[in-house]
C-alpha cells in the first residue's frame, strides 16, 4: 500500500510540476515556431516573472495569482520593445546572429537584475492552506499553479483557433510568403508572436514561484531553460500545444519514475529520474524525429 | 616580517576575498599595535601583509605562490579562499617548504595528500554536522531516529557521510538516507518517504536554494521533527526573510558568528592559553579597517589564521618554517574564533568546533557548543501547525 500511496503522491506532484513546465516552454516553442528564433535567454524571462511575483507580494501584498496578469503585461511590453529594437533587424540574418542576440539579452537581463536585486536567494510565504489527501498533502498554491497553467494554455488555444489574428499567426507559421500575398502584415505578426512568447514565459515565472516559493535568484532560470529545450524538442519544437503536453509528460515521468526506481536496491532514485526522462526523449525522437505533436515533415 | 597571501579580489570570489583581506589586516593590526609585534629572542618583528589578487583562478594562485616564496621570500602563507583554490596552491607551497595555513578550504581531501607544511584553521567538512548530533544526544538521549537528506555534491556528501558514521557511533538509528540532484525544484518524492520513516531528527541540505526548498516543503507536507540542521541556507538572513516563521527552530552549522562567547575565561576553564583580541576588540578593529557598519562573518577565520602564525612563531622563538611547523603540533590555544589544535600527521584542524546556530524569534542565536553559546537550544522545535499559528522558538 505504501508503494501505491507514494506512487500516487508522486504522480500528482508530477502532474502539477509538468503543467508548470509546459507553460514555461510554450513561449519558447511559439517564438521558434513563428520566427525561427531559438531563445537561449529564455530562463532570464522566467526569472523576471518570479521576481515580479516576489516583489508584488513582499512590497504590496499582492497575491501571486493576481501577479500573473501583471507579468503577462510586462512580458508583452518587453517582448515588443525587444522585437522592434533588435530582432526586426535580424529577421533575415543567419541563425547564429539571433542565437547570440538572445544569449546576450539573457545575460544582460540577469546581470541588470543582480545589480538591482542582489545575488541572494529570496522567497515568500503565501500560506493559504492545503488539501489533505491522507497519503500526501497538496498546498493550494500548487493547485493554483496547475489550474492557471491549464487555463492560460486553453485560452491561448482558443485564441489561436477561433480568432482572425490567431489564424494569421498560423498562416505565417505555415507559409510566410503565402501569408504575405494574402495581405497579412508579417512583421506585425512576428512582433505579436514574439511579445506573446515572452509574455507567456514571464507569466510562467509567476507559476514557478507558486510551485516553489523559495530559491528565487537571478540565475534561477538556467535550470528551466535546460528543461524547456528538452520539452520543446519532445513536443515538436514549433508547436506550443505539443510543448504543453510534453511538459506535462516530462513532469509525470520525472516524479513518477522515482517510486519505481526506488524499488531497485542500491540506487539513488532521484539522480536517475532525470536520466530516465532524458532517455525517454531520445527514444521518442528515435521513433518520431519530429516530436510528439510535430506533424509530418 | 612578511605574511603572504593570494586573495580573490576579483572574479567569482571577490566578495569573500575582500572580507578575508579585512580579516587578515585586522589580525596584523592587532599583532603590531596591541601586542607590540612579535618578540623572537631579542628581536621584535612587525608583521606586514604581502598580497596579490588571484582573480579567483587556479593558475593565478599557483604562480602567485611561486612569486611569494621565490621573489618576496615569504615563509608564511595564508591560503586562498575556497577548497578548489586551496587545493591548487597547496602543493606549490609544500614544495618550497613554506607554511601554508588554510582558512577558506574546508575539504578534508586537502589534508589527505601527505603535505608537510599545510595546516588548517577552520573546521573540516567532516565536522560540519557532528556538533549538532552531540547537541541532540545531550538534550534528548531518546531522540534516536535520524534521517539524512542531502544534495548529491562533493561537499555535502563528505559532510553527511562523516555525520552518518558519527551518528552510528553515538547510537543513533539511521531510519532514512537519500540524496537529491543539484538544481532540484521538487523534493516531494523524497519527503513523502521521509515522512513515512517518521524520524525524530533530520540533517541535510547542500546549498542555498535546496536548503530553502527542503524546509519549505517539509512545512507543506507537514513533516514534524524535533530538530533539524540544514547546511548553508539557514545561516543567511535571506533564509528567514524567505520562510518567515517556518524558519523558527531550524539549526545550521557555522564556522563562526558574531556573538560566540569564546573568551579568555572560557580558555582558562579548558586549561589552555588565550591569544589575540577578544571578540569585542576584534569587531572594533574590523570596523576601523573595513568601515563602520561592516560586519565580519565566518571570514574571521583569516584573522585566526594570522594569529595562529603569530602564536606559533612566538612559541617556537624562531622564524624558521620547519621549526614553526613542529611547534604547531604542540599548540593548543583559543582565539575569538575558537580553539586551535591540529592533527600532527595531516595538519587538519581538530581543535576548532563548528558552532550550531538556531533561529529563535527571528534572530540567529548560537546554541552549541556550550563554551560558545549565547542562548539555550530550543528543543523540540515547534510543529509547523504551531508555527503557522504564530508560535516562535523562544523560551
List keywords for this structure.
heterodimer, A: mainly alpha, 11 helices, 2 strands, B: 395 residues, alpha/beta, Rossmann fold, 4-stranded parallel β-sheet, 3-stranded parallel β-sheet, 13 helices, 17 strands, 19% strand
What does this structure look like?
The complex is a heterodimer of chains A (297) and B (395). By secondary structure, chain A is mostly helical. Chain A has helices at 2-35, 42-60, 64-90, 95-117, 140-162, 164-174, 176-181, 186-211, 221-234, 240-261, 269-287; strands spanning 130-132, 137-139. In chain A, helix 1 (2-35) runs antiparallel to helix 8 (186-211), helix 2 runs antiparallel to helix 3 and helix 6 crosses helix 8 (186-211). Chain B is of the alpha/beta class and 395 residues long. Chain B folds into two domains: 2-123 and 261-340, Response regulator (Rossmann fold), CATH 3.40.50.2300; 127-254 and 355-388, Response regulator (Rossmann fold). Helix content of chain B is 39%, strand content 19%. Chain B has 13 helices and 17 strands. The longest helix of chain B is centred in the N-terminal third of the chain and has 21 residues, at 14-34. The A-B interface holds A 2, 5-6, 9-10, 13, 17, 120-125, 127, 130, 135-137, 139, 208, 211-217, 220, 222-223, 255, 258-259, 262, 268-271, 273-274 and B 152, 178-181, 183-186, 188-190, 192-193, 196, 208-210, 212-213, 216, 220-222, 233, 236, 238, 241-244, 246, 388.
